[in-house]
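User: I'm new to structure prediction. If I give you an amino acid sequence, what do you actually give back? Let's try with this one:
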Amino acid sequence: MLKVLFIHGLASSGAYKTADTLRSLLRPCEVISPDVPVEPQAAMALLRGIVEEDGPDLVVGLSLGGFMAQKLRGVRKILINPDLHPHMLLSTKIGEMEYLSPRRDGARSFFITEDICRDYKALEDVQYDGLTQEEIDLTDGLFADADEMVRCGEEFAARYPGRAHTYPGRHLPTFPEIKAHLLPLVRQHFKIENNLISK
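Assistant: Good question. You get back a string of structure tokens that encode the predicted 3D arrangement of the chain. For your 199 residues, that looks like this:
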């Protein structure tokens, strides 16, 4: 059975609707969708631990989650509208922010600090370290042509030649967009027969 790790974006949680969309479209796969800390070191430690312990076959990262997914080496991944320079957006949001989907611990808000922005910038500066041809072949990027929040498609395409794909839509993809444009990318990596997915 296919095992997928879904990494949500900023101000979100593992309960974000894209996780359920993946469960529906990739049935009967297992979708792991943790609540990811906003602090980058804690987030990457959590995600690397999941990759090591659970061995997902595929990682799907959305927005800030796409940035984090890119740093997970040695695993197949699809980055949806990844924000490759999150410190720039975060620096405009210093202070308290509300979560837009429920967190397992019941938290309703979180804080963006200057230290968090600096920590993201430090991670951005080394985000392409260890990027080999094998790693490029494991990675696809899916970019909305009318993204109103993040536009990193050209940078991704330069770093991952031939791995950037576009779809008609906005920053947060809808169920039909995921079905029409993400699912074919999954099929390129995994065989799907009779609605059952196997490696």
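You can read the tokens as a compact description of the fold. Here is one thing that stands out. Helices lie at 17-25, 40-54, 64-70, 86-90, 114-125, 133-137, 153-159, 175-189.
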